Amino acid sequence: PGTVSPLYILEQKGRVLVFENGKIQEAAFLDIKSKVATAPEMGLLGLAFHPDYKNNNRFFINYTIEKNGIFTIIAEINSKTLVEKEILRIAQPARSNHKGGGIEFGPDGYLYITTGDGGGAGDPDSNGQKLTTMLAKILRIDVNKGNPYSIPADNPFQTGNAKKEIFAYGMRNAWRFSFDKVTGALFAADVGQDKYEEIHIIEKGKNYGWNIMEGKHCFRPAVNCDQAGLELPIWEYPHSQGTSITGGYVYRGTKMPALQGVYIYGDWGSGKIWGLTYDQKNKVLVKNELLLNSNRSITSFGQEADGEILMTTSQGALYRLVPGT
After folding, report:
1. Verdict on whether the full-model pTM lies above 0.85
2. Which of 98, 103, 172, 217 has the fewest Cβ atoms nearer than 10 Å?
3. What pLDDT, in 10s, does the model give residues 110-129?
4. CB-side exposure of 279: number of CA atoms within 13 Å?
5. Residues 6 or more apart from 269 whose CB is under 8 A from it?
6. 246 pLDDT band (50/70/90 cuts)?
């Protein structure tokens, strides 16, 4: 926030690199390799700059450790001092997948976090439908009040044994989510299990179905599941098209005007990149079209200050999406 350059690039093993003037800078912005536990879906997974970063130098990271168990750590760091303050620790099952990793500030100024169901086939601990755990959720906290944070007054689950940090639930592994810069809508791409990948627009307090549903289909039980109170995705696609969705951004740049307002996302398994047009006002899907078959394992998307879209891959490259010929 407050700058147009440089770019900050997360490495799963625990570094944040700086890309400026066409090259990676020699000095890392952050290096926590010594404490980060990496595995197929563990490591340094997310970073969010405070909206007032230009003045307060605060940023937040989402990473995993393995010490007397596996934990997701949400920490605050001051870029001037590099002093780290742990603000949230979430115990994870002893499995290496479904640790979430998303972390973003919303237009309301609150910090949003995705956690994943903790791993294993079919959500063996049934975390998706439990309000007593922070796993399989989208969380929302206020890092501007409290020590180390406070609960926003309008968070939906404030009574009983429910975790007050929960904003929405029923997510399998919403690895990547983002806010539309114009409308503020929260788009989350949830990785599927056996047959379907799915996209949701997340609203406060709602249940997005896992592990009762996979996409728009019954999962447990496989037929005649109780769908009462569940929110179906705005879009799903079968595993014939891709096997692990990677959420992106609603395009708000200028270099690809035909994609203005289109949600751009991809798939780690197939390398395909699609554009989804959704009428947010009337809650109607307009179309979903294939934009590019990248033939790359797409791990994440990024958004530049001017709204242009970046993409990272398991092959270790950083790409910018540009108009086709």
Report:
1. yes
2. 217
3. 999 999 999 999 999 999 99
4. 7
5. 239, 242, 243, 244, 297
6. very high
What's the DSSP call for residue 110?
Answer: -
Using alpha carbons, select from 283, 276, 261 the residue that is nearest to residue 180: 261
- State the average pLDDT over residues 54-65: 97
Answer yes or no: is pLDDT of 261 > 90: yes
Structure tokens at 54: 């230009």
Question: For residue 115, which of 97, 94, 93, 100 has the smallest C-alpha distance?
Answer: 100
> Measuring CA to CA, how many Å separate 152 from each of 141, 145, 225?
6, 9, 33
Distance CA 300, CA 267 (A): 9
> Contact at 8 Å (CB) between 213 and 227?
yes
Residue with tokens 């490259």: 317
Q: Find where tokens 């399989």 sit.
A: 136
Cross-sheet strand order for the sheet of 272-279? 245-250, 263-267, 272-279, 284-293
Which residue reads 């100024």 in tokens?
A: 109
Task: Please report where in the chains the tokens 């770019």 appear, as a residue.
Answer: 7
Q: Residues 217, 119: contact at Cβ < 8 Å?
A: no
Amino acid at 185: A
